[in-house]
């Protein structure tokens, strides 16, 4: 029996509700798989009216969402009233975000849903309300341990048909990157990327490349020693384990079309080294995928866009891509019997 995707509301004052409604409204033309939204149904109905969409809503249990999807938007009700207005997060925002993520993970672990798809959140809003994790990814790892008893090392991949990139270090000030970048971290990340490209993406022998931390990958030590002393030993270890990886390579020559044709994913040493090229190539349709979890999780690769929330102008393309990729990865995982 087909299981639906669990789609979280995201920050209710942002564009997450808008794009969820727009995708369901155009579901047939977009060819999206069945999903349900975890939300306060009354809030979602108000937002639909605000952006001039006629959306019939059906409050359902997760397991019955597929049967309603063709004629009504299935909504699994949060026991959290949501009162935020577009562009104006309020006291209901953080509790709604957290409750929706928890419910989505619980539904997937209980095999009521096939995968988790998360709409964008505003970390600053969560932090002001006592949220202790750096972001979505770390919170999902905590829930994997809490609900499934699985210790996870989450890895963020930004994926598109043009390019897939993995930042080894993520949300750090640039000055802190060299101290946090270790051989062990690169090795563990490379292992997870290779394993999941094979098990979930169906790539028999994944080809990885790794960018150098410094300009020209350190220029043999003249522009920094990290590439020689930290990055290269990690890649040697990965190659010793049978993983196809090249590098460290100068980042400025890794992302043109001919170079991209030679690899399946690029390991990048810090946030912008990974995100600038993919957002340049695939701004509207890249997908954030969390590797290393015992379930599939994808997300649109953009933020809450408070300035256009509630206007109906938000582009749902990245959410469409996230839903389609989540469905593909969940099916591959089930077929392969992967965790």
Give me the secondary-structure topology.
Layout: E1 5-8, H1 16-25, H2 27-30, E2 35-39, H3 41-50, E3 57-59, H4 65-68, E4 73-77, H5 93-109, E5 116-117, H6 123-128, H7 136-148, E6 155-159, E7 164-167, H8 177-180, H9 183-199, E8 207-211, H10 226-240, E9 244-249, H11 257-260, E10 265-268, H12 271-282, E11 287-291, E12 297-300, H13 317-336
Parallel strand pairs: 1-2, 1-5, 2-4, 3-4, 5-12, 7-10, 8-9, 8-10
Antiparallel strand pairs: 6-7, 6-11, 11-12
Helix pairs in contact: 5-7, 9-10
Overview of the structural elements:
This protein is an alpha/beta fold and 339 residues long. The protein folds into two domains: 1-154 and 292-339, Isopropylmalate Dehydrogenase, CATH 3.40.718; 155-286, Isopropylmalate Dehydrogenase, CATH 3.40.718. The chain has 13 helices and twelve strands. The protein has a twelve-stranded mixed β-sheet with strand order 3-4-2-1-5-12-11-6-7-10-8-9, with helices on both faces. Helix 5 crosses helix 7 (136-148) and helix 9 crosses helix 10. The radius of gyration is 20 Å and the shape is globular. The model has no long low-confidence stretch (mean pLDDT 94).
